[in-house]
Structures are given as C-alpha cells and as structure tokens.
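Thread title: Can someone regenerate the structure for this chain?

I was given the following input by a collaborator and told the matching structure tokens would be attached. They weren't. Posting the sequence so someone can regenerate them.
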Amino acid sequence: MDTISAAQVRAARGLLNWSRDELVTVSGVPKSTLVRFEDGATAPRASTITAIRKALEAAGVEFIPQNGGGPGVRLASAHQE
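Best answer:
Regenerated them for you:
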C-alpha cells in the first residue's frame, strides 16, 4: 500500500534535513500541493502520494506501516550515519 500520512512526510523530511522546497524539486509535486497535504488541508491524489513516497524512499527513507505502535519512518541501514 502506498498510503502515507502527512506526519510521516514531515518526519521523513526531518530525517533527511530536507526543506519543503527540496522535496518539491525531487518529487516534482507542486509546492502548494505539498503544503496543503502536510498541513492537513487536503488529501492529495494517489499519484501525488506515490511521487512523494518514491522521492523520499530514493533518498533512503523507509516507511513503517501501522503495526500496533503506529506508522512511522526511519532511515534505511545504508543511509544511517
């Protein structure tokens, strides 16, 4: 499943130390769309979520699904400092 939450996206950007502008550049998602999603104002299309997810995963983020402890994010082993 490609669904990720706004909180996961914000956390992933934090792990990577990326600004919204950096994610916009890498994902190709319009900044206004990213801002509305992260602020909880709108639910973007599946294609938008996929673009955001792929950009963050390519940078080394792993999305952790809801598994009793809640969804989350972490850096993949190869990208950890």
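The chain has one domain: 6-79.
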